[in-house]
Amino acid sequence: MGGVIEAKDQGAAGHGEDALKRLTALVAEDLAQCNRLIVERMHSPVALIPQLAAHLVSSGGKRLRPVLTLGASRMCGYEGPRHVALAACVEFIHTATLLHDDVVDESTLRRGQASANALFGNKPSVLVGDFLFARAFRLMVEDGNLEVMRILSSAAATLAEGEVLQLLIQNDLGTTEAQYLEVIEGKTASLFAAATRLGAVVADRPEAEAEALDSYGRNLGIAFQLVDDALDYAAEQEKLGKTVGDDFREGKITLPVLAAFHAGEATEQEFWRRTIEERQQDDSDFAEAQRLMARHGAVAKTIARAEAYGEAALKSLAGFPDNPFRHALAEVVRFCIARAR
Amino acid sequence: MGGVIEAKDQGAAGHGEDALKRLTALVAEDLAQCNRLIVERMHSPVALIPQLAAHLVSSGGKRLRPVLTLGASRMCGYEGPRHVALAACVEFIHTATLLHDDVVDESTLRRGQASANALFGNKPSVLVGDFLFARAFRLMVEDGNLEVMRILSSAAATLAEGEVLQLLIQNDLGTTEAQYLEVIEGKTASLFAAATRLGAVVADRPEAEAEALDSYGRNLGIAFQLVDDALDYAAEQEKLGKTVGDDFREGKITLPVLAAFHAGEATEQEFWRRTIEERQQDDSDFAEAQRLMARHGAVAKTIARAEAYGEAALKSLAGFPDNPFRHALAEVVRFCIARAR
């Protein structure tokens, strides 16, 4: 299936980061405006708020979600200014979620730098997250479109549900693949789907196009998260920009773990029960987890699943006009998959 | 000044809790609808969410803020159904804030029961708080009025700013009274002001009335928080329904502390520096703090300030029609002050 993703788009810029660069370049001016708006709206007389927010907002994030909103809007022929604020909304919701995630996961690294909670403490991270949520809603209200607000407030609720569900299945090897997919659809894909759907809404396109862009974003988001979960066992720390093995150490249930557990012999299952369910780990266990995964192709299986979702995302673009934005959005699918190679 | 508050309203139901009961009784039917809506909108397929939310939502809270929204709407002559959902919004924002507060403060008690974070852990408390925020915004969007959304999203941002500012002045005896007032205006009074302002907005009353109700709620909220801060040093645990001495143990800067510190001799200032700034406390220190406060009338001073804000709240009601709702809203001012007696 990966072949289709690679072959489909003839003018592809290449693999990995390059595959996102084309879309980013196409919306460069919009994105510059969006970045200015983000900085402006992070402002508060309470100086710690912009300080802490800036740490995250300017720490080398790819702005993937706002770029998707900008690109989807342009693909739909939108020429006005509103998509810039909507893209900033999406990024604020995402940033707020990252702040709360890092508190919940007790992470110390984010994008290769010390995470905000490690640097500033958990308390300001929780509260600045709340501030950014509130600012996101304020921005939507200024835009004034009820459909936009419905989409984003629903996505924010679904996102929180996905995060809670993730907590509930943590350390539980009895988790089904369906439950795992429900988690990543909630915690990751719902905001991707909202980010891209907004493109059709802001351009006042018919509901069928909004649905198609929702499907593109949702499938892309699932693919993105599957690859992220694979990378936690596969990549080197520098490449990933986050602490490799974090998921393992937290006993997080992800597809590579489920795949290796179900394919494993009795002694291997014992290993996973001890390390993931009981969280009894020593220094050599992560290497052993990687070895068992390699043995059963667990990471490769996960990436194959990501490729299938990537295919579905590409199909959702089929009905849109053949313009550079559509091609660049197709390349983003490759970007999400290629990170794993 | 307390005399005015006590004398003004002839048909007063009495002190303390009774002073809130009249308004609660007047809006009883609306409140029952609001409670049903709250339960309905807490629902999620992720069962932990309604479980955790219900722990807080049904743990004997007085529903002060939604009752204010319902009462203010009725005072303004509103006869429609929209105020019920707006009151539920306000309660959701408040509940989300409480969940995050308890995580930030590491509280173990809330309204005399184990707090949600103590019972369910910090992680679900952070995430369920996010879920409730998102649901609050979803409810507003369903209401569809942009002015309502502007008011509530701004209040939510100001609230978070107040909480961050509170963190920043924690343990700092150099905090000015003005900074302390800025904190409580942000973290408490901004949502009170929004809750009451909504009454004029939903009833489509002129901006001057919205301003007057904003001022009523804001002054009431400041009075409420001043009394709360006084009670942490004055009340018995059962009466307050929260752990007495929490503020002291956290080194929280509140008006009673600032009053006792500034009035104290050198050795007393040394005591406050050790216990509040350095947080070096032993078991007998809280009793000593209470003794020093009594010596300088620090709690009484705080309550006198609350009474002054209560007076201002009452004045803001002067221009409204002379109806039972106005009288009951006036009594709520007494309720907020009388808790301290």
UniProtKB/TrEMBL annotation, chains A, B:
It catalyses: 5 isopentenyl diphosphate + (2E,6E)-farnesyl diphosphate = all-trans-octaprenyl diphosphate + 5 diphosphate. It is an enzyme of class 2 (transferase). Pfam families: polyprenyl_synt (PF00348). This is Octaprenyl diphosphate synthase. GO terms for molecular function: all-trans-octaprenyl-diphosphate synthase activity; metal ion binding. Belongs to the FPP/GGPP synthase family. Gene3D superfamilies: Farnesyl Diphosphate Synthase (1.10.600.10). Its cofactor is Mg(2+). It comes from Roseococcus suduntuyensis. GO terms for biological process: isoprenoid biosynthetic process. InterPro entries: Isoprenoid_synthase_dom_sf (IPR008949), Polyprenyl_synt (IPR000092), Polyprenyl_synt_CS (IPR033749). Keywords: Magnesium, Metal-binding, Transferase. Its EC number is 2.5.1.90. Supplies octaprenyl diphosphate, the precursor for the side chain of the isoprenoid quinones ubiquinone and menaquinone.
